[in-house]
């Protein structure tokens, strides 16, 4: 077996997971213009819910995904109504308020679940690829398939439906969309609803691929920000690409330098992205 | 100075109260300790607010705090210099980081600056965490020298082990930082920073180099934050990456300043004096885990209901912008 095969495979599967993490963040930011720094903590919330369902009630994984997605919608939709009332400057205020929410959630996790590390370990079979002489646990493959399916579905929603057209218009120019008669407030609701579904979906995957502990959400938020800035708002395919690139970079870093430097990768990438694209997420050049 | 108005009178009364209460409640050692730490975090909040005067919301001040703590600890551990000497020197490490920060983030504003500052913390944190030969990695450094014992005016003050003496030291440094903060707000330079905050184009039209002025504010801010970190290291006697590079430490000054009123001279101190004792003395016994949720809740409520902070409710608001 070529030594690079597991590095690339792990990178791709990790990257697919990152794309799934970033999707919800990107939609909420693009359409509602809200920076959700509590994104990672919400994924953790879903992850802890999945852990409880799996550990105490032995719910099958497919149902866990379903339940978590539906529950998280009822977390993000109230957030939409909360953030809508914020005074100007809106972007900065959403950043501060969701940072507060992140801290609140972290402490609730600490109170409910203590600081222990938890991991969901359902028995996934190993899959063997004979012609590469390489075998991998099925859940890593599931990540890749799931990421392709979900980004495909969101892409189709944005490109193929009337709602998607309105959503894209809102992402590109909120005021112009409003003038064209699009109810941007209702679309924000749709974005938070859809974002909630995606966050809910990412939670159980987080619980079985990374350790759950109260402060784990910060890294997930960071990943969502990096991938979203890389992709630009509303570019769903780029999110998948950005996720894979980040995953492969991390996987290669771990292979070359050891796992301790992994957290630095996303931070350095974010700083580089911001250095070269200081206008951040926007598609058009400003000034 | 001119006429003394009611807010200056209230401030003087407040300072007097802070100075006198430990003499009356001599045996409440826990209170002395908590109020001492309150002063420490108030220094950090004042530091944060000096940078915030220029309109920058930093989510990464723990980087300066941690660098100050580690630089002072390393000088003390490897060269056995006294904390009196390592603390002011160690805080310079934070200023060095601030220089890189100012150069790297000079094109970033608002939300993007916030995101960048959040990410910037990872760099010193990961380096300190992994440079085992120098910093002992995630194990941290233990057995640092405590703050020294000094004789001031014939009174021997053991700042290291006597928490009451420590409280007075921290109160004194906090008052110095407050004086600096006051000078910053009331000086011509303070107005320069506020012009940058309100409108950078207008500032440029007035001939203000906003990047340079903002960088100056950050250097001052980082030095103060570094001092706070260095004090923390020698008060605790140990440093650990997870202890001094911690999101919590970035959020605390933000919460204290915005809750207290970030446009007011006393705002950050007021926020710290109300919230930190509330958390440590009241909530901690009730909720041993998760008592810091208070800060999350407070910042959300503040932004929604009184974005100017509680200082805006004071009867005679000081004339400030």
Please name the defining characteristics of this protein:
heterodimer, A: 287 residues, mainly alpha, two-stranded antiparallel sheet, 11 helices, globular, B: 321 residues, ABC transporter involved in vitamin B12 uptake, BtuC, two-stranded antiparallel ribbon, 4 strands, 4% strand
CATH topology of chain B: ABC transporter involved in vitamin B12 uptake, BtuC
Low-confidence stretches of chain A: none
How many domain units of chain B? 1
Structural class of chain B: mainly alpha
Secondary structure tally: strands of chain B: 4
Based on CA inertia axes, which overall geometry of chain B fits?
Answer: globular
Largest beta sheet of chain B: what is the strand line-up? 1-4
Radius of gyration of chain B: 19 Å
State the distance separating the first and last CA atoms of chain A.
52 Å
Share in β-strands of chain B: under 5%
Number of strands of chain A: 2
What structural class do the secondary elements of chain A suggest?
A: mainly alpha
H/E series of chain A: HHHHEEHHHHHHH
Overall mean confidence score, pLDDT of chain A: 85
For the termini of chain B, the CA-CA separation is 19 Å
Largest sheet of chain B: 2 strands, antiparallel
Total of helices of chain B: 15
* CA-based shape of chain A: globular
CATH class category name of chain B: Mainly Alpha
Largest interface comes to: A-B, 44 and 42 residues
Q: Please, could you describe this protein's structure?
A:
- The complex is a heterodimer of chains A (287) and B (321).
- Chain A is built from eleven helices and two strands; from the N terminus they run ααααββααααααα.
- The longest helix of chain A has 29 residues.
- In chain A, helix 2 runs antiparallel to helix 3 and helix 3 packs across helix 8.
- Chain A has a domain of 172 residues.
- With 287 residues, chain A is mainly alpha-helical.
- The radius of gyration of chain A is 19 Å and the shape is globular.
- Chain B has 321 residues and is mainly α.
- Chain B has one domain: ABC transporter involved in vitamin B12 uptake, BtuC (Orthogonal Bundle), CATH 1.10.3470.
- Chain B contains 15 helices and four strands.
- In chain B, strand 2 and strand 3 form a beta hairpin.
- In chain B, helix 13 crosses helix 14.
- The longest helix of chain B is centred in the last third of the chain and has 27 residues.
- In chain B, 50% of the residues are buried.
- The mean pLDDT of chain B is 86.
- The chains are: A mainly alpha (287), B mainly alpha (321).
- At the A-B interface, helix 4, helix 9 and helix 11 of A face helix 5, helix 6, helix 13 and helix 15 of B.
């Amino acid at each position: 077996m070529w030594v690079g095969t597991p590095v690339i495979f792990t990178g791709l599967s990790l990257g697919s997971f990152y794309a799934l993490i970033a999707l919800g963040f990107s939609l909420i930011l693009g359409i509602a213009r809200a920076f959700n720094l509590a994104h990672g903590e919400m994924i953790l919330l879903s992850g802890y819910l999945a852990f409880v369902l799996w550990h105490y009630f032995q719910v099958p994984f497919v149902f866990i995904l379903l339940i978590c997605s539906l529950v998280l919608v009822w977390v993000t939709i109230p957030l939409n109504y909360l953030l809508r009332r914020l005074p100007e400057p809106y972007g900065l205020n959403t950043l501060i308020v969701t940072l507060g929410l992140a801290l609140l959630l972290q402490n609730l996790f600490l109170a409910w679940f203590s600081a222990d590390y938890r991991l969901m370990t359902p028995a996934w079979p190993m899959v063997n690829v004979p012609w590469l002489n390489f075998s991998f646990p099925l859940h890593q493959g599931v990540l890749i398939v799931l990421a392709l399916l979900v980004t495909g579905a969101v892409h189709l929603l944005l490109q193929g439906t009337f709602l998607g057209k309105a959503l894209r218009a809102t992402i590109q120019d909120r005021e112009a969309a409003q003038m064209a008669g699009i109810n941007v407030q209702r679309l924000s609701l749709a974005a938070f609803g859809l974002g909630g579904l995606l966050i809910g979906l990412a939670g159980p995957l987080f619980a079985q691929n990374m350790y759950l502990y109260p402060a784990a959400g910060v890294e997930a938020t960071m990943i969502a920000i990096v991938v979203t800035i890389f992709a630009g708002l509303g570019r769903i395919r780029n999110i998948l690409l950005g996720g894979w690139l980040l995953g492969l970079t991390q996987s290669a870093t771990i292979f070359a330098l050891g796992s301790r430097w992994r957290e630095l990768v996303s931070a350095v990438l974010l700083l580089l992205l911001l250095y070269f694209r200081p206008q951040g997420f926007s598609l058009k050049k400003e000034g | 100075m001119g006429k003394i108005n009611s807010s200056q009178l209230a401030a003087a009364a407040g300072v007097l109260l802070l100075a006198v209460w430990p003499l009356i409640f001599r045996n409440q050692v826990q209170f002395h300790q908590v109020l001492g730490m309150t002063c420490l975090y108030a220094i950090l909040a004042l530091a944060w607010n000096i940078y915030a005067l220029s309109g920058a919301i930093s989510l990464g001040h723990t980087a300066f705090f941690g660098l100050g703590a580690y630089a002072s600890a390393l000088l003390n551990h490897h060269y056995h210099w006294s904390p009196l000497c390592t603390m002011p020197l160690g805080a310079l490490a934070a200023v060095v980081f601030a220089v890189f920060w100012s150069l790297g983030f000079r094109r970033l504003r608002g939300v993007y600056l916030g995101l960048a500052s959040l990410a910037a913390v990872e760099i010193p944190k990961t380096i300190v965490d992994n440079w085992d030969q120098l910093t002992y990695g995630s194990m941290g450094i233990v057995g640092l020298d405590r703050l020294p014992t000094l004789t001031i005016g014939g009174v021997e003050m053991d700042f290291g082990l006597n928490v009451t003496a420590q409280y007075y030291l921290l109160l004194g440094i906090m008052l110095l930082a407050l004086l600096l903060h006051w000078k910053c707000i009331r000086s011509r330079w303070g107005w320069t920073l506020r012009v940058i905050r309100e409108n950078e184009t207008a500032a440029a039209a007035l001939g203000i180099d906003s990047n340079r002025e903002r960088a100056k504010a950050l250097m001052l801010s980082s030095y103060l934050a570094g001092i706070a970190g260095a004090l923390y290291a020698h008060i605790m006697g140990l440093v650990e990456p997870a202890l001094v590079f911690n999101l919590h430490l970035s959020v605390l000054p933000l919460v204290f300043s915005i809750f207290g009123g970030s446009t007011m001279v006393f705002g950050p101190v007021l926020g710290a004096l109300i919230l930190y004792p509330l958390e440590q003395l009241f909530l901690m016994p009730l909720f041993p885990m998760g008592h810091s949720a208070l800060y999350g809740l407070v910042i959300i409520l503040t932004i929604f209901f009184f974005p100017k902070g509680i200082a805006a409710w004071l009867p005679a608001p000081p004339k400030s912008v």
